Amino acid sequence: MNGGVLGVIIQAVIPFRLSFEPGISLYEQVVYAAKKAIVSGRMRQGDAFPSVREMSKVLKINPNTAHKVVTQLVAEGLLEVHPGIGTVVAGQGAASAADTTKLLNKELEQLVVEAKKLGLDLEELMAAMAQHWRRLDGRKG
After folding, report:
1. Model pTM greater than 0.70?
2. Under CATH, which number does the domain 2-89 receive?
3. How many whole angstroms separate alpha carbon 17 and alpha carbon 34?
């Protein structure tokens, strides 16, 4: 039961999902997860971004790594620092088409690798994607 409460607290403090992957630096993984949340609209303009202290504590990463993540996202124009307020998601259009394409390409590559592991061919993969697309599109209504 406490795990559920902890999960809610972590999501409230860190509004993006992170699954640690071996062989990829923590810095890159946190930057990717944050970019994905911003580009996908999960984090919106003006939303508060976790502080360096919050990220390092909740994700159990070095504060220097958390600071580097924030610095990178600010440099890319995805975050803005407002003295006295904190760090927030930048204005509309902050995520470039290149950011979106790069994130999508990574997700697609992972999907194709998993499909090949399962022995699916391209037509089966496309049919499964179309089915999920239609199901998720129907939820928007």
Report:
1. no
2. 1.10.10.10
3. 8
